[in-house]
Amino acid sequence: MSDYAIEAPKPVTIPVAGSDKVYPVRRVYCIGRNYAAHTVEMGGDPDREAPFFFQKNPNNLDATGQFPYPDKSSDVHHEAEIAVMLKSGGTNIPVEKALDHVYGYALALDMTRRDLQGEQKKAGRPWEIGKAFERSAPVGPVHPASEIGHPDHGAISLTVNGETRQTGDLNQMIWKVPEMISYLSDYFELAAGDVILSGTPSGVGAVQKGDVMVLSAEGLGELTVTVV
Asked: What gap in Å lies between CA 70 and CA 33, rounded to an integer?
C-alpha cells in the first residue's frame, strides 16, 4: 500500500553508454553565453563577467532521438552542448575539487523557442517559456568519466540535414566545467543526479519539422535527433 496521495511520477533516467544501468536526473542547470562567439552572436559582451544560469526541468531531458516541434512558436533554435552529470555534490565546492563530483558526460541540445525567449527578455521576465518546454533537451547516453576522463578540449559540431551549422572547441568555454560546478555550489546545494548544460558555440539557428540534427564531440560520439 502506497502513502502517496496520487500516483508517483516516474523518475527521469538517461542510459549509460555500454551498460544496462541508467543515470537518474535530479536537477538541470544551464549556463548562458559560455562561448565568446555565441555571446557576440546573441548581442552580449564576451568579456569574462560572472556567469549566469537558468534551469530546465528534469523531464525536459529526452533520450528518444526525436524532438517534437513545439506549439506556440515559429522560431525554434538548436544549441549544441555537452552535459555534465554529477555523482555527488555539496556547497562551496573548491574549483580544484569540482571534478571529483562528476560521474560522466553526454551530448545534449538546448532547444529554444527563440521568439518566446526574446519576448521575455524584452519584458524582463524569466525564460522558462522559451527554454523549459517538453522534450526541449535531447540528450545522448552518459559516458562515465572513469572511462573517457574529463574532456576539456576537442571539437564540438552540429549539422542539420548534412549542413554544418555550429563548430567550436570545448577549450573555448569562457567558464570551464570545474568553475561552473564551484560557482553553482556557492548558490545551490548540488547533489548526485544534477546535470549542467555547458553552453553552446556560435551558429545557432532555426529548425523545421523533418530536419535531422547530428551533434558530435570528441570522446562522446554522435547524437542524431529528428525534428518531428
From this structure: 23
Q: Name residue 82's beta-bridge partners.
A: 107
The CATH code of the domain at 13-227 is 3.90.850.10
Q: Residue 154 — left, alpha, or beta (φ > 0 → left; ψ -120 to 50 → alpha)?
A: left
Query: Where do the structural domains in the chain lie, given as residue ranges?
Result: 13-227
Cell numbers linked to 129? 517559456
Phi and psi angles of residue 159, each rounded to the nearest 5 degrees, phi first: -115, 150
Say how far apart CA 142 and CA 102 lie, in whole Å. 11
pTM of the model: 0.94
Residue 190, Cβ density class (10 Å: 0-12 exposed, 13-18 middle, ≥19 buried): buried
pLDDT tens readout for residues 94-150: 999 999 999 999 999 999 999 999 999 999 999 999 999 999 999 999 999 999 999
